[in-house]
């Protein structure tokens, strides 16, 4: 069972909901997290149970980032809006930076999300379920 987070900006929420509906059978059985509104939208459209953090502008990206910092998050689907400025841009950058620090797979557009969910379905993420000492991290820091 992996820890997976869903995050989407407003103009990407329909895309996110349709994506999760299509792959609900893959996501069920994992532990799911989201920012506030994204999670509400997904739960209204699926039977998935999702732990919702704050809405992004209120700190949700940072709450998910805290789990990433602990290397507790295994996969993030973050459908960003590349054409609209966000008031919490620093939080978004910080979350993506932490994903790079820890080596966490993160999809920021639907094409990458499709590839990662198919990899998840195929079992390619099994390495994330191994003990901490096999996870890439910041041990050299
Ligand atoms: O703003 C977000 C991510 O940066 C998403 O927050 P919501 O899911 O609450 O809309």
Automatic annotation (TrEMBL):
Gene3D superfamilies: Methylglyoxal synthase-like domain. Keywords: Lyase. PROSITE patterns: METHYLGLYOXAL_SYNTH, MGS. The keyword RNA-binding does not apply. Residues 1-141 form the MGS-like domain. It catalyses: dihydroxyacetone phosphate = methylglyoxal + phosphate. One of its GO terms (molecular function) is methylglyoxal synthase activity. Substrate binds at residues 9, 13, 35-38, 55-56, 88. The active site is at residue 61. Catalyzes the formation of methylglyoxal from dihydroxyacetone phosphate. This is Methylglyoxal synthase. The gene is mgsA.
